[in-house]
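## Example pair
The file below holds two records. Each record gives the amino-acid sequence first, followed by its structure token line.
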Amino acid sequence: VVRRRLLQRYEHQPFISCLAGFYSCRWKRYQRRRTEPGKCCCKTVAFCFSLVFLYMWGEAKNDYNNFDWYNYGNLGFWFLWSLVLLIVAGILFTYIALLLVLAMCLLAEGQQLYLHWSHKIGTFLVLVFSITALFILSVLWKDQWKTVRLSFQITAPYLHIGAITVMVLLSWPVALHAIRADKKVVQVIIVGPYLAILLFLFLIPLGMYSPCIREMGTLGPKPALIGHRGAPMLAPENTEMSFQKTIEHGGGGLETDVTISYDGVPFLMHDSTLRRTTNIKEVYPNDTAQNAALFSWDTLQELNAGTWFLKDRPFSCMGSLSRADQNQAMNQSIYKLSNFLRLADSQNKLVIFDLYRPPEKHPYRNSWINRTLEVILNESGIRPHLVLWLENDMRSFVQSVAPGFQQTMGSKAPVEDLLMDNIVKLNLAYTEMSSEDIRNYAEVNITTNLYVVNEPWLFSLAWCSGAHSVTTDAIHKLKNLSQPLFLMTPQQYNIMWILTDLTSVLLISLIFAL
């Protein structure tokens, strides 16, 4: 408005025209400055959401296998969707982090923040992707937030150092903006929140808890390793080869799933159908959706239970399989419960299994437990103390006919109730891990097994929390851990905490002084 009026009135006077141009330039600069905080705020929000999702998905690595199998069941083909999602999250986080760093540098030097339209779209996509992914995973896989909470018990000391480092880096632009501010109120608005956050970070270790920060000599023995369906990263799950691999790698126990065939033969199968882990599509293409328990044992013996491992899952092995292992995997068949128990007894290994009740109209629908007990007690010859009996139905009857079984419960309960039912072991999902509960149960001689634990950091947390055993897919990795990761004494952590705080105070003070 000023420029227009001046030009209309003094269009022939060069000085006034120049003054009008000056006002116009100042007005445009003012408009840009009004929009710069909004642009920076948008980038910051996108950065925060992408950071949360990247951390959450990175810590969910323990359950990538479940995520990929879930997608396999819906899409019908195998692909490492979990890894793709991790790579995409990493790329988007790196992109938005670089944009934010560049914006902070420009603002710190008093430069204008010109954002190309492509970066505006990129920022919007990062924000939408991160929020959408977090929402979907929260709805379909909400237990992963429990994993994130557990991970803080391991990573919190190192996240604290990272947060302090970020605050040191931010001290430069904060100091510059505070010094350039004309009014004291503006300086307080800029510096006040920064110092409040910094003080909070300095004191947060006072409320931090990690079972891996403990005095020397208080760490319990390494948890025993129980092979989850054998060693499914090294061999086809629930096959003889898979259990042999678990034994070769020093596993203390074998976990499996038991289904009963139509003619009463208990066999090992996790899924309700045979589509995923056999070649039934080739042998009986019209019966792929039929319940596995509705096939006779003779029919089941015709199927191959190993070809899928190399065909559908080329990356399932953590290391490359030898030619001999590949040939062995290609020739696996469905494993009978009696043979499984004989193998465990010959190697003195504990066994634990989920027992699936047959569907309606199955001949053994109402006698499934009795039939399973017949095989365990009369056909397999396994010593009773090696059996961890998990099935809760007819537990009193099972105790009467097989008093030697180790009664195992699949959920937490008051100690009095567990003792009344003669429970000697709990088999819990790792998300229910609690060092306090584990310690309370151990005081009355009830041990705790956690499932399924694949990542070294999670195994380390279980070890520090006092778990007696874990069920794992990755026995070949966890067997090599000689002590928990991130293990330190309180004195070592206090030194790390104090040195971090003192160093940051010194650096921030120097930056503000400069």
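Second record, same layout:
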Amino acid sequence: KMTQQMRDLQLAQARKPPGPSSPNAAKRLYRNLSGKFRVNYTSFDEGSLVGRGEKEKLRKSYLFQSNAALFEAVELQDFDRVQEMLKHYSPEELDLNTPNSEGLLPLDIAIMTNNAPIARALLQAGAKESPHFVSLESRSLHLSTLVREAEQRVNELMAQVVNEAPNADCSEKEKQLKAWEWRFRLYKRMKAGFEHARVPDAPSSVHLSVASSTSLQVTFWEPLSVNSAVVTKYKVEWSCSPTFSPLLGEAVIDKLKDLHFTIQGLVSGTAYHVRVSAYNMKGWGPPQASTPPFAIPSNWREYDGRAPRRRGQAEALDHLLGQVKTVHQHCICHEPCKNQPQSRKHSVSKSLKHLFHPGSKFLKTLKRGLYLTAIFYKDDNILVTHEDQIPVVEIDDTYSCLLMQDFLWLTKVSCMWDEILWLRQCVTVSQSSCSCILQTRFKMLLAISQMQGLLGIQDLGQVFFEPIKDKQGNILIVTLKEVKTNQTFESVRWVPICKLQSGRKSVSSPEEPTALDTLLISLQDKLAYHQRSSHALSPGLYLGYLKLCSAVDQIRVLVPEQLPNILCHVKIRSNPNISREEWEWLQKMASVEEPVPTEPETDRSQNPLFQELQVAIKELMTLVNIPLQEAKDFRLYSQEVLDFGDQVSFLLLLPPSDDVCTAPGQNNPYTPRSGFLTLPLQIFELGEER
């Protein structure tokens, strides 16, 4: 019999203990199991068990129980319990795709009882249908066998209960009878669900788009009617013929968390037709053709054969840096570093003194000058010196040169923290010929080396986009770095940020706080900025807004506070690729100097990119507080698509030429709402690279 074959196969794989004999028993098992998993299982360690073998035996016992509890939750159609188990335990812990003694998987029971919510949850967790149901006949035969055997068992137990005198054994038989009656009803419901089901309808919609010059993206939606059976997989087919004869390829998708598929390895410039069909336990339904009916793999670069802007740039820069290092190996600027007996002796003396005063290198207070501070944080903790001070070292106590240019130079240095010693050798010059700027930058490198040496780490992190100044003449440059691991540093220790802020005794007045007090007050804001500046955009095509403002010594760019490493933007669509046809349309629109599309036009309603841009422009104008009628004078940057890797690309929306950059003293009538800030252009470029 089919059922006996299933059981023999299961016994060959692993012997599994029987599940609970009744719904109430299942509930008790689940409650006990949940408690054991939450308390005992997660607290195992080597010292709590006699040996590793006992630990493994106990773990397997819990896995067996979890599998039984999941089966019972599915059979009872308890969606909340199924969800909770899938949330807290992995498919391996739940033994999700191992059949029970009846040859069934949890997903089989869910789909044959037509419990769509549980079936979808199981599918998203990676559940599969039993591979033994190779045909409709085999599934029907297996269900009929289960029903017949359950009915036979019910009749046998009923006869025993009726004929035996009341005793302990009879009471146990009654419990078994109730359990088998419940299972008999379950199997009949599964058999009826299978018999009444029909193949699913076609997917309700299939969208086809160009993903690259060799691939197409297919996105589809569930059928409007599944005909009393849950869809468990989809089939994507493609061909160069609208009749799909011959068929060039097909793919079956059984991971249904995201209903999309990318067809790879296609020929650029060739038209492909695509269709999708759905499957349930009754078989494949009719296919649904895509919209548009075909697509041609291509990329906007094919329009004029343009190569990627950044191709080979990293290699070229590495080669250039290597050449510079080679030239500087015998440079005269290294001579002061070769003959320094007195300086070395003095350095040794200072090092010995440092052994007795471990905190003497870090400053407690600022005394009118330029300083460097390094903020290392992990969760809600921050690194401080043994005297509960933020690590601060002095750069220059007589600083009087233009700060912004030196500051921007230092932000570039932050990209090569490991090369500070070499940079110091390159910048070293004799005092007689040393300019003010060169002296300041050399002192910056000395301060960086000092901070690195005291902390015992090279990478000081990212430079905050503006230094902190106070009315006492102090300037504080801040670096920020998040520590992911339990890393230890020299001369410093971890303390909670709130403890540091509440415990510091300010030496300044609230009206005129020192730079250190200002840093502590705004510490959370700076940490939030640092974390946000490392966030990445989700894959897709975006519309960015370029707005600059100039000052005497710098140009700043408008960015959102929530993502300061990217221009103000809205998402156009999830597909980042601009096809050749779409780029040709954008070029045509730019050549005739047409305004950006803000209002619907009937003759272009069939162009998907036109419709997507309309929606995106309206959303972007609302975001940056610009009236929509003003956008008619804006234009799309038509020289190139800005690609950030393979998954993110940008189209730029530009104001009129005279308004791209606001000059000093010029009023901007449309000030963005809160949630934006302006970064120095060089800082923004560095953040974009990170």
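Notes on the second record: Residues 1-50, 332-360 have pLDDT under 50 and may be disordered. The first strand starts at residue 205 and ends at 212.
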